[in-house]
Design goal:
It contains three helices and eight strands; from the N terminus they run αββββαββββα. With about 110 residues, the chain is of the alpha+beta class. It has a six-stranded antiparallel sheet with strand order 1-2-3-4-8-5. Strands 6-7 form a two-stranded antiparallel ribbon.
Length: about 110
């Protein structure tokens, strides 16, 4: 199944102020690389996968619709969270996840974007 096109458009809009953004199709998802590092992906069924600070992961999992990301049925690293479509319905919730992803992206890439 292909990635969610509407979600991809929301992500593009949210990343429109970033200088270095590249889109990469992988595993049926559309990954958004910011400053050379994966920040978020648009997955199937409207799910957003977020790369976040592993030290914040437990707290972030308390948010609506958040769960550990899995690949091929196995949990991914602690810094990866998938958010169901109902957890990003509101602009406020979606923006909160994008902020988490971009804050961590700046930390790992050493960028000021």
């Amino acid at each position: 199944m292909a990635y969610d096109q509407e979600l991809a458009d929301r992500i593009r809009e949210a990343l429109s102020t970033q200088r270095q953004v590249r889109e990469v199709r992988m595993f049926g998802a559309l990954a958004f690389m910011v400053n050379g590092s994966m920040a978020v992906t648009a997955n199937t069924d409207g799910r957003l996968m977020v790369r976040c600070d592993p030290d914040r992961a437990e707290k972030l999992l308390e948010r609506e619709g958040a769960d550990w990301a899995e690949m091929r049925g196995k949990p991914m690293g602690k810094g990866w969270i998938v958010v169901a479509d109902h957890g990003i319905e509101s602009d406020e919730a979606f923006d909160g996840w994008m902020t988490e992803a971009l804050d961590y992206n700046r930390k790992v890439s050493g960028s000021d974007d």
